[in-house]
Write a structure and sequence with these properties.
Blueprint: H1 3-6, E1 56-57, E2 69-75, E3 89-94, E4 99-102, H2 108-113, E5 124-126, H3 132-135, H4 138-147, E6 154-159, H5 168-178, H6 180-184, E7 197-202, E8 209-214, E9 217-226, E10 228-238, E11 241-245, H7 253-258, E12 264-268, H8 273-280, H9 284-294, H10 298-308, E13 312-316, H11 325-333, E14 340-342, E15 347-351, E16 356-361, H12 389-392, H13 399-413
Parallel strand pairs: 1-16, 4-5, 5-6, 6-7, 11-12, 12-13, 13-14
Antiparallel strand pairs: 2-3, 2-15, 3-4, 8-9, 9-10, 10-11, 15-16
Length: about 425
């Protein structure tokens, strides 16, 4: 088998090109092989048995190996999310059972639900910054997780700001304020322990500072350059594997240095200036400002990855369409010739020390919440609130139909429940 075959590169192109494969020979990258060689021994194809080693990942059908890291793109798009791409969100699952969310942008919890993971396990979120396309679904996970089986706190790590009012703690406190009506109506009906949001704010200026260290997992933060002070990047290290995530940033020395040695390095790679002008109708001055000063343009992404030299680089934060992706790829390849994925929503990277496998995900759109991972503790019904007598005075008489529903339920489940409202 030739060296170029051994060092094959898989690039996923979005939209109409999602199934197109490009193979590019790379020197000295034998540890990034993601497919079997053509001359590998093949098993007979059975007419009745399921084939193993599928080219697609179906959630909740594969065990995670003890030494394996699984990374899933739950949101890869731009600030204006769309059906094809939610805003930024990356799930990292480890073979020790830990799961971490990096960003939780608008629309991403819909993708998370399709993975059928009990919400008790989706309880650790790391925010790179406080733009809504990176944290806009925090309320959905906080409340949605509560009503879908999470009985413990939701933990959130995020950066401080230049002022207290622009930091993560302030944002999360006021999110809970605007959710006050929602949470008040669930008091006494759902476990109080699941209604807790624990915020861990850290200094955005810390360079390689440890913000999380438990169960063999170390997560570090690095300052990022994005619009105003208060953005960060992250690395996660566990069991000899390393994940790096830039968040949004102009290329900077802190992430480039901190991400070296990564198995998988994810960095923003914004839409090209001509596409910002043609597709979004930006004035040229704004397109240049947004596309090259606030975000990282494709050639700059490539230059960053050429310095990091990850086992696989992942570009995100652009609309992955048949007519925009080629210009992204062309720009990246001006400065980087290493292993690359041009990300779209619902891809999975299975990472081990031996290899990295990249696949698309197919999930059930009519999925229901998975069974709770833990039994719910007793609920203190004494704190339950009810509607006022004024609202009750507007109730129609439904006693005949409601009583029959209760009678049937009691008969089915051996209970003796009585309706509060008849």
């Amino acid at each position: 088998m030739s060296s170029s075959t051994r060092n094959a590169l898989l690039i996923f192109l979005g939209g109409a090109l999602a199934a197109t494969l490009f193979w590019v020979g790379l020197d000295g990258r034998e540890d990034t092989l993601v497919v079997e060689s053509a001359d590998a021994k093949k098993e007979p194809v059975s007419p009745v048995k399921a084939r193993g080693n599928r080219d697609v990942y179906y959630p909740n059908t594969e065990d995670l190996a003890r030494n394996e890291m699984r990374v899933i793109s739950c949101g890869t798009g731009m600030p204006n999310q769309r059906p094809a791409q939610a805003a930024s969100c990356w799930l990292v699952e480890l073979g020790n059972g830990d799961k971490f969310l990096f960003d939780l942008g608008t629309g991403s919890t819909e993708r998370l639900s399709g993975l059928e993971i009990p919400y008790e396990y989706l309880n650790k979120v790391f925010l790179s910054h406080l733009h809504t396309d990176h944290m806009g679904d925090m309320d959905a996970l906080f409340v949605g997780g509560l009503i879908s089986g999470r009985v413990g706190p939701l933990h959130v790590w995020g950066p401080s700001g230049a002022t207290p009012e622009t930091g993560t703690a302030y944002a999360m406190k006021h999110m809970q304020e605007y959710l006050r009506w929602d949470i008040a109506g669930r008091a006494g009906r759902l476990p109080a322990s699941g209604q807790v949001l624990e915020v861990h704010e850290f200094d955005y200026k810390g360079i390689g500072q440890v913000v999380y260290e438990e169960n063999g997992v170390t997560i570090r933060s690095y300052p990022a350059n994005h619009v105003i002070d208060g953005s960060v990047s992250f690395t996660l290290e566990w069991n000899g594997l390393k994940f790096a995530f830039s968040g949004d940033t102009y290329p900077n020395k802190w992430f480039t240095e901190g991400a070296k040695g990564s198995d998988i390095a994810i960095h923003e790679c914004f839409i090209t200036v001509p596409d910002l002008v043609d597709k979004l109708k930006f004035p040229v001055s704004r397109a240049l400002e947004v596309g090259t000063q606030i975000h990282t343009p494709p050639p700059a992404f490539g230059k960053v990855m050429s310095q990091i030299q990850p086992r696989i680089a992942v570009a995100y934060h652009f609309f992955n369409d048949f007519d925009t992706t080629p210009s992204i790829l062309e720009g990246v390849r001006q400065t980087y010739d290493g292993p690359l994925t041009l990300a779209e929503d619902m891809l999975v990277w299975n990472v081990t020390k031996k290899d990295i496998r990249v696949r698309s995900i197919r999930y059930e759109e009519h999925v229901w919440p998975p069974p709770p991972a833990k039994a719910a503790p007793p609920v203190d019904t004494s704190v339950m609130q009810d509607v006022s007598d004024f609202i009750k005075s507007g109730n129609l008489d439904m006693g005949d139909v409601i009583s029959k529903i209760y009678e049937r339920a009691n008969e089915l489940y051996g209970t003796d429940e009585k309706p509060r409202t008849k």
